[in-house]
Amino acid sequence: MLSIEDALQRLADRLTTPLPDQPGLRRLCTPVTLSDASDPLAWLASQPFFPQFYWQQRSGSDEAAALGALKRFNSLPQAQAFLQQADEPELRIWGLNAFNPHEGDLFLSRLEWRRHEGQAWLCLHLWSETSLKEDARQATAFLNALQPARLLPPLNSRLVEECHIPDKEGWCERVRLATRAIHQQEMDKVVLARASDLRFGRPVCAAALMAASRRVNLNCYHFYMAFSEHDAFLGSSPERLWRRIDRALRTEALAGTIENHPDDHRAWALGQLLLADDKNQRENLLVVEDICQRIEKLGDGYDVLPPQVLRLRKVQHLRRCIWSTLFQPDDALCLQQLQPTAAVAGLPREAARLFIGEHEPFTRGWYAGSAGYLSLQQSEFCVSLRSAQVTGDTVRLYAGAGIVSGSDPEQEWQEIENKAAGLHTLLCR
């Protein structure tokens, strides 16, 4: 097995073999030794190339760091069409889908570090519409410019200013507007969100925030996309949007929330209250019903598993897993049907989105969209919740709450406070 430096040298050596002066795609891979001292996130953040994408599956079994864009796509259907044309089953495209699923930022990386369970490897991608020979020259220059991994800096910036959009008064008013609309049967549920802008005394290292969140926010997907040195979107999300292996589809309804507690017995008791609570069960079952109606169009039946309590660092959620078999492995269709789910938008979907567009005082952008990868063989996207936009010295945190009949504005404010705390407590100690 090879260190990352040795693996990079082996890839560089393979580029000395002449390639044809014609269009094409090549995928050069070599194994890499796993070491407790090596962190792919730190290595990724040390590089001078963008975009950068880091991903860790919530079970911890899959991890990846993708660097540099050979080709970029502004929607998932574009990325899927490229993969179908390339016909390379294990080739992955990484990135984000916005809350508006027609918008995205996904890319085929120049270099990809990937781990599955206890095995890791580096893959160098070559692609050109004109000349693989010329792209190999560019790949050699890329490899020569890579930097050794540096330690990530600590998160110790001084908080200068914090503001909520909307503030508490504005939030409570919007919840009251939503519950009136629900009472008048304009919709059954709407998910309202808050953005919190935290400004610090110096630029915040987004990768360091990602690493800090990864250490403490367990049972979550961890995702990080750096668009440039001082512009990144990241998060630690508990919720799967979908996972597909060939035609097997796995999705879930994650809705209904109660606080967590550090004492295991107290946390268990709170979890039992969540399972027995009518408001939270109704909220979860609304999402289940919506998802089932949507995937009914995609595959051959579905199974809804019994409810579970998902325990996170600050909160606990009600979750029901939903399994199906697709008629065909079509990720673009999965995105179209599943995003945004009732857990992040509401029901009916269009009525809730119209309410959000009219009453939410900020644009969601990447928040409540999805993050992950697609390939011909398999795909997986999480809902981009418990997330933050890092721009220079400012971090925008996002949190949302599902509003249904009987929702109390004060309780919903406390719920978004608890959800935002997953990242807020790392920045403001």
Automatic annotation (TrEMBL):
Keyword vocabulary terms for this entry: Isomerase, Magnesium, Menaquinone biosynthesis, Metal-binding
EC number of the protein: 5.4.4.2
Substrates-to-products reaction catalysed: chorismate = isochorismate
GO MF terms held by the record: isochorismate synthase activity; magnesium ion binding
Pfam families: Chorismate_bind
The keyword Metal-binding is assigned to this record: yes
Record-annotated active site: 189, 239
Listed SUPFAM superfamilies: ADC synthase (SSF56322)
The organism's place on the tree of life at top rank: Bacteria
CC cofactor: Mg(2+)
Binding site for Mg(2+): 283, 415
Domain spans labelled Chorismate-utilising enzyme C-terminal: 168-419
A single GO BP: menaquinone biosynthetic process
Pathway: Quinol/quinone metabolism; menaquinone biosynthesis; Quinol/quinone metabolism; 1,4-dihydroxy-2-naphthoate biosynthesis; 1,4-dihydroxy-2-naphthoate from chorismate: step 1/7
Alphabetized PANTHER family for the sequence: ISOCHORISMATE SYNTHASE 2, CHLOROPLASTIC, PTHR47253
Free-text function comment from the UniProt entry: Catalyzes the conversion of chorismate to isochorismate.
NCBIfam families xrefs: isochor_syn, PRK15012.1
Family (UniProt): Belongs to the isochorismate synthase family.
Protein name: Isochorismate synthase MenF
